[in-house]
Amino acid sequence: MNPISNIWNHPKTxxxxxLIAVATIAGVLSQQGxxxxxxxxxxxxxxxxxxxxALLGLLAxxxxxxxxxxxxxxxxxxxxxxxxxxxxxxxxxCSGITVAQDIVNWTPALQSAVATIDSTASLLDPVDAPVFxxxxxxxxxxxxxxxxxxxxxxxxxxxxxxxxxxxxxxAFQQQVNASLLQAAKITNPxxxxxVQNAIxxxxxxxxxxxxxxxxxxxKADKARMAAQASIKLSRVRPYMDQDKAAVMVAGHYxxxxxxxxxxxxxxxxxxxxxGF
Length: 276
Hints:
Helix content is 74%, strand content 1%. With 276 residues, it is mostly helical. The longest helix has 27 residues, at 189-215.
């Protein structure tokens, strides 16, 4: 696609992408101790990042940015800020209660995706089914635990309950990453497509919940969570379907797929930079 034409046809999406990129670069520079000088009581990097985030928030609230309701527009702004929070601890975004509710709101999609996992084995070639079953064993238990911890955190958003939610989401994310690597051993093209679709649906939801949990976690907690993630996203990225993930995120938040694609990319990059 012609990039100039794409920018012209999708100006708000393109502007959002630029603002996210500016804030992301500012976050990386800040983490490396690069300030580019001082402005008032802060730094140039912090100022640029703050302005980019503020403009991104205004864009997310633009009634023309999406054809959905005001509620969906607020969710859009929240998700965009969450994408930045993973590496921008000095930016304030959605409240803990809002994030807790958003985590719970993702749980039906998680349960549906896991149910699809359970039914997919019967559709596979008999040779491939055992590999898939072995790769996804434990998904039911992990999803039930994560759903329970998410609801517990919404009811009681304390540090101790958050710690349990952090452990549950990292453990499940590691199971999903391991399953993507194991499923790659399936060579039948039809089976491979069915397997990838099923696991990617679970992976999308778990990564979304991981990003939400990280957005309300301290820097030390995020470092601890990342240390527990032995299978990094960089290893499984070749087996992840970003386009399908964008469609899921767009459907969940009621927003354009183009915008969701930017958010999915940013969340993946931020999670990887955070050590996941």
